[in-house]
Sequence to fold (129 residues):
Amino acid sequence: MIDSKVMRRVLWVGSVFNALVALMLMFPSTLGALAALPSVSSNYYRLMLTFFVVLFSATYAWLALAPTISRPIVVLSAVGKTGAFIIALVCLARGEILLRTFAVSIGDLAFAIYFFLWLRFTAASPSNA
Fold:
């Protein structure tokens, strides 16, 4: 079984990870340039994307603080992180992003794997559901 204390630490790290990504998205010419993020032509799309990344960041912090960790939200988080990695992988394969940009999504993959492992090896019970 995976200890819930470890999961809470992972959630805090995930929250910080997403917050840093959100900053890269908000400031593409400075912080985003560190990861060679492609420019977003529309301010609307940039703000919407940043909002959803911040929303997940806040969700991870909320889960870390909650008395019980919501399994359905961890499922959603695992699917979201997996999706972000797959999208980045497809874009890398198509030559649409640089390897440096793709490297950021390896963090997403690591979180997805941990979330799925937590779901698999932690029983659904009131203490950790």
Notes: Helices lie at 4-26, 31-34, 43-65, 71-93, 99-121. The chain has five helices and no strands. The chain has a mean pLDDT of 93. The chain has one domain: 4-121.
